[in-house]
Amino acid sequence: MDIEAADTASWNIAESKVNGQPSIIRYRPDLHFVLGDKNYPKNLTIFWDYEYSDSSGMPSNTLSEEMRQFEDAIVPILDIDRLAIFVFTYTVNGTREWHFYTNDINAVGEKINSALSNLPKFPIKMQVETDADWTKLREVYELCR
User: Fold this and answer.
1) Percent of the chain at pLDDT above 90?
2) Quick one: which of 50, 100, 101 has its CA closest to 71?
3) Residue 1: pLDDT band by 50, 70, 90 thresholds?
4) Taking the alpha carbons of 70, 76, 135, 91 in that order, is the dihedral positive or negative?
5) Average pLDDT, the chain
6) Which of 140, 137, 139 lies closest to 34 in space, CA to CA?
């Protein structure tokens, strides 16, 4: 199975409202062929909760740049040998989530720590769930079709 690198893959953006607040999903539409791949049974979600100053619930330009710096630091190191597949981000009401599928959460944690070691501390939390059917990405595809 040949999974394209995240930085060269196509990405779509879907905008909606959740409880009156704008929401944005940025996702890879080209991963249907890998849904349920047993080589990547765990969903890693990285959460960044933030304060917002207007009614949009979206991050400020400065905060968006910090989030881009974070993403640019971790995605290449996880993606280079497809240790983790970066599948979507979700931003709404003071939270951005990054979603990955992986098999080796310990190796992913080590790579993330290494990638962030020389950067300012980011206010992130991580959650790992078994999701061998890739339910989270399937839900995104269902919402965004």
Assistant:
1) 88
2) 100
3) low
4) positive
5) 95
6) 137
**Which residues lie below 8 Å from residue 76, measured CB to CB, with a gap of 6+?**
7
What pLDDT sits at residue 18? 86
DSSP track, the chain: --PPPTTTS--EEEEEEETTEEEEEEE-TT-GGGTT-TT--EEEEEEEE---SSTT-PPPHHHHHHHHHHHHHHHHHHHTTTSEEEEEEEEETTEEEEEEEES-HHHHHHHHHHHHTTSPPP-EEEEEEE-TT-HHHHHHHHHT-
Neighbours of 89 (CB within 10 A): 19
